[in-house]
Each structure stands twice: as C-alpha cells, then as structure tokens.
Amino acid sequence: MTTTTTAPRTPTTTAVAAPSNKLTSGRLPSWVPWGILGGSAALSAAPFAVASLSSGSGFNVAGWVVLAAVLYLVLITAVSTVVEGRRKGTDRLVTGVVVIAFAIAMVPLVSVAVTVVTNGINGISGEFFSSSMRNVVGEGGGALHAIVGTLMITLAAAVISIPIGIFTAIYLIEYGAGRRLAQAITFLVDVMTGIPSIVAGLFAYALFALIFGPGIRMGIMGAIALSVLMIPVVVRSTEEMLRLVPNELREASYALGVPKWLTISKVVLPTAVAGITTGVMLSISRVIGETAPLLLTAGVATSVNYDLFSGRMMTLPVFAYSQYMNQGIPATAFVDRAWGAALVLIVIVMVLNLVARVVAKIFSPKLGR
Predict the structure, then answer these.
(1) Is residue 21 part of a domain?
(2) pTM value?
C-alpha cells in the first residue's frame, strides 16, 4: 500500500497597490516648481499690464521680474513646507535664492557681451585689422597700431611680472615662513593689491621723467605701470596654489634625498601649474583693459610703433577712449571704431584664457595611469 504525501498549498495573496498621491507622499512632482514659476510669472504680469494700459507707458519688465521672483520664493516655500516638511521647504527656499542670485549676476555679464558684440560688429572689417589711423580724419582707418601696442605692452608687462610674482610666492611659502621679511612682503603685496591704476601710471611716469625728463612717453613705461598692477595678483594667486600642494609630496621628495630647490621645481610647481596659470591669466585680464595708466605713460599715437623703447604707442583701451571722446565727422565712424576696439579687446582676453586652459591641461600632473 503506497502512501502519498501532498504538501500543503500555500495560500496566495494578491497585493493590491494602494494608489499613491505624490502631492501627499512627502515629495513634490518635478513639474510643480515649474508650474509655480509659470503661475508666479503670470500673476505678477497682471498688475503691470493693467498699469501699462492705464497709463500708456511701457511694460515694466524689471518690476515684473522682481515681483515674480519674490512670489515664486513665497509659493514654493509654502507648498514645499506643507507637502514635504519644513526642512525641505527651507532647502527649496535657499536653492531659489541662490539661483536668483546667479541669474542677477549673469545679467550684467550677458548685457555687456551682447552690447559689445551688437555695436562692435559694425566697426569690424578687413581694413580695421590691416591699417592704422595715420592720415585718417573721418571714415576709414583701423586699429592695427592699437592691437600691436596692446599685445607688445601686455607681453612686456607679463615678462616683467610673472617671474617676479612666482618667485616671490615661492619665497613666501617655501622659505620665508615665520620670518619678518616675509611678513613685510605680504603686507606690501596687500597694499599693492588695492592701489588705483592711475597711481601705477603716475609712478611709472615719475620714474622715467626723473631719468629722461618730463613729457616722455614710451611703451615700456606702460608695461612697467601694468606690471605694478600685475605683480600682486600673481603673487597672491601663486601663493594660494602653493599652499594647496600637500606637504606629503614635499616630504616624500626630501626622503629620497632630493634637494629643496629641485623639489620645488619638479614636484611643487608642476602640481600647482594649473592654478598658477589661471592666476597669471587673471592678472593679464586685470591689466589688459586699463586706460588711465597707459594714457599717462604710452600716450596716444596714430601709426604703428614696434619699438617699446622709443616713441608713443597706442593701445586698444586708449584707442576706444580717444575715438569715443574725440568724435569727428561723421561721428558714427568714430563710435564704430570705438566699439570695434572694445570687441577685439574682449576677443583677445577670451583667446588668452582658452590658451591658458590648454596649457594648464597639458602641463598639469596626470593622476590616472
């Protein structure tokens, strides 16, 4: 007789998923902030539209944007606090404030870029890059002499400032820690960081006037004036980058018997080269658009001058200033040349920054294998 045992059946239960409402589940759907933003914009536009129609004036865009931003912050904070809790509501409030602050900071940047490109494109032509203003009274002419002067003076200022700034920062970080001389240098660098650019121009002019007599104008004078403004920026940025280099790298190099100067040149500087390059480009961008010191030192010229040590030399900032302030007939030609010089100056700064990024990427230490 055979006995068969059958396993008891496991009762099957069918789980019925309860419908979840995202508005009450502790998290707002992704479309809610955008919906609140659109509703805030629409509600804020209503009173300004009524006021514009009743008074006959234009629509107040700035007031509408401010009111819409405030209304959005209030609504998103209240809705998020009710649905997600007080902590998440505060987080959304702070996030909104940060985003709005970023947008406000971008407004002047975008406005300047759009204005310069829109107005400067009218003055850009082949003649603008191939000719100077020699013997040009009205229309025609170009900014070749100003472009050459800007590049030469800025290059000379960089040649003077970059070695001095980097070596000064190396001394302050690697050799002068705790010494009175280092403290004095740090104090002087702080003072130089805040001096007005016109003071640097007066210093360079007074220095050369004592040697060559009053009324002297040369390109090298402008380079020295710009170097006075560049050096503290290079020192400060390089100093901060050297501080970021871990001491373990230095100690490992010393443990292998490498002398200090070789450790600095082969370990410390290559590690910080990306930040140092960025700081150098910031210093160049800081001085390439200066007008006041170059008016005092390099002066105003209408022809190309390739000699930094002889004669006046025109630069793009001075060229834009002189064209706009001394308008002739027709005035539109002078204004177009001024905006064109401003656009070229911005393009030069952009190209220099791109070159600096490429250099920093190539020479920075490779962390991967």
Answers:
(1) no
(2) 0.77
